[in-house]
Amino acid sequence: MSTKMNKVHLSKGILEMKFMSRTREKLEKEKDDAEGRALYSNEITDKMLHDSSKYIIETSYVPCEDLIEGRVSYGGMNPEIERIIELEKNKDLAIKIEKERAEAAEKQRMRRDVPDEEMAKFYTSVVKTMKKKYDKRQTILPLNVKRMERPKDD
Predict the structure, then answer these.
(1) Where are the alpha helices (DSSP H) in 2-140?
(2) Rounded CA gap, 15 and 68, in Å?
């Protein structure tokens, strides 16, 4: 109870200001949570409030067992239902095949366009060209011209 008395309350005018919208929302949420806890205080325990659940509660065992929901026909007793089930299976199969095709197309796109041998030939020719270019630059400079030197830092 002492924590409630020490808590500072902001006026409605301040909370209505544009820059205080986050604080207003936070205070409203806290107020709603407090009201909810007060309503269900006899049903909610402290352990429920502070611990997270490790289990998912499912109302039916149908999704757990991968069962078919709805009507089922056996041995041709209801051909319309059998046709609908077959269409659903084909639809799932078509989606799976489409995903596989998309993955195959992506792999094909990611393949190398240039074989390794051709790339090696190109690289060696580029290296030779660059070597020739820089060898020519060194021979063009006359020997009697002094090269610029950096000034010494003293």
Answers:
(1) 2-6, 12-15, 21-39, 46-50, 62-65, 79-110, 116-140
(2) 54
